[in-house]
Amino acid sequence: MSKRSTGKMNWKPVIHPVEGQEKFRAGSFLAIRSQDDQGRWHLSVSHFSRLPKYGELKQARYDLLPPDIWMVMVFPPPIYFVNIHPRCLHLWEIEQDERWTQGTI
After folding, report:
1. Domains in the chain, ordered, with CATH?
2. What is the pLDDT along the chain (105 residues), one digit of tens a residue?
3. pTM
4. Which of 22, 58, 66, 88 would staple 46 via disulfide (CB 3.0–4.6 Å)?
5. How many CB atoms lie within 10 A of CB 87?
6. Among residues 9, 2, 20, which one has the least CA distance to residue 64?
7. Beta pairing class for 29-35 and 88-94
8. Would you say 71 and 93 are in contact if contact means Cβ atoms under 8 Å apart?
9. Which residues are bridge partners to 88 per DSSP?
10. 45 contacts 62 by C-beta, under 8 angstroms
């Protein structure tokens, strides 16, 4: 996705053998979305040869997930960090906090 791009990334569904997950492809990108047993979303976005850029990750989030949820990238303590795919980034749904809509972050 170039800096000039403002539209969707044209995601296409891909067959994915894992129950409860949906896989999509857009050019050199792959995305997998799923929900946990409490209905919270998780989105994984990878690129064939590099990490996704901020704008690409942001576009995937708005292309593939509901617009009214809050998604974050998590940096846990090192003991809990797992990196299975070197060119993949993850977003996790969290509950809205009133501070975020009051301009205090």
Report:
1. 12-101 (3.40.1720.10)
2. 334 444 689 999 999 888 999 999 999 999 999 999 999 999 999 999 999 999 999 999 999 999 999 999 999 999 998 888 899 999 999 988 777 777 655
3. 0.84
4. 88
5. 14
6. 9
7. unpaired
8. yes
9. 46
10. no
